[in-house]
Amino acid sequence: MQDEDLAGVMRALGHPVRLSIMRMLAAQRQNPCCCTDVTQSLPLAQSTVSQHIKVLLDAGLIERQARGTRNCYTLRIERLAAVNQACGGLFSGLCKPTATPHLANELA
Amino acid sequence: MQDEDLAGVMRALGHPVRLSIMRMLAAQRQNPCCCTDVTQSLPLAQSTVSQHIKVLLDAGLIERQARGTRNCYTLRIERLAAVNQACGGLFSGLCKPTATPHLANELA
DNA sequence: GCACTATATCGGTGTTCGACGATTAAAGAG
DNA sequence: CTCTTTAATCGTCGAACACCGATATAGTGC
Q1: Which PANTHER family does the annotation name (chains A, B) (predicted)?
Q2: Closest-CA residue in chain A for B96?
């Protein structure tokens, strides 16, 4: 995963409202939430929530499924797993005691 | 770790240049980098690099140590470990098959 | 076709970001 | 004390963000 992509995902997750939305979608995995559901649990206008959802969509973290008259959103688990791995790699790389470039390579 | 704090850290890390700076500081842990060192390895003005460093400082991810006429920066490892843990918790919470609120609590 | 619901998008506003050059501040060297 | 180095800060500018209300779009049911 490229730094550019990882940074983009981090920025997408770098807002408390969007973290809340992600957690809510995770909690309601069985019967996915639509935009109205999310809006009703947040003190924000519908248009604002829709924009936050778009940010998460653009970052590839969630996906939309048209379901009748409403759009349901679900987490993209494989993508999240990849991000998780990239984050783990980042932090372990940062925290490793002697992370000189060539050593970093052999451990990557 | 609160969502607000986690989101702040994510946003701080949500820029390719800042990821580069973090990796560079990790690689040069033995003899810490100063602002000039970082500037010389990036195609950016000194003031711009200084501002990126300030963002990382404000997020608590790095710390400054005055060393003679220059300021050296080092990673705050304990903090990074906490962030790593929070990220791991976030992603595992998101990816868990049935992450209802009370179950999420008992696993946190 | 018409009303209704759900939601994406548009336009506007105020704030923050990312970048720069220029200036200031502070420590060392002479 | 002055000169140099280092780096933080200031002022500016355009772009992006966060929020809102209002408008458009699209599917459902009649």
Answers
A1: REGULATORY PROTEIN ARSR, TRANSCRIPTIONAL REGULATOR, ARSR FAMILY
A2: A26
Residue B106: pLDDT over 90: no
Chain B positions touching A16 (Cβ under 8 A) are: 3-4, 7
B56 occurs within a structural domain? yes
Q: Is A61 a member of any domain?
A: yes
Chain B partners within 8 Å of A8 (Cβ): 14
Interval B30-84: pLDDT, tens: 889 999 999 999 999 999 999 999 999 999 999 999 988 899 999 999 999 999 9
Q: With 90 as the cut, is the pLDDT of residue A104 above it? A: no
A26 and B94 within 8 Å at the Cβ level: the answer is yes
Q: Which residues pair with A71 in a beta bridge?
A: A66
Q: Which class for B15: exposed (0-12), middle (13-18), buried (19 or more C-beta within 10 A)?
A: buried
**Are A35 and A46 contacting, i.e. CB atoms less than 8 angstroms apart?**
yes
Query: Structural domain of residue B15, as residue ranges?
Result: 3-76
> Is pLDDT above 50 for B102?
no
The reply to whether B16 Cβ lies less than 7 angstroms from strand C is: no
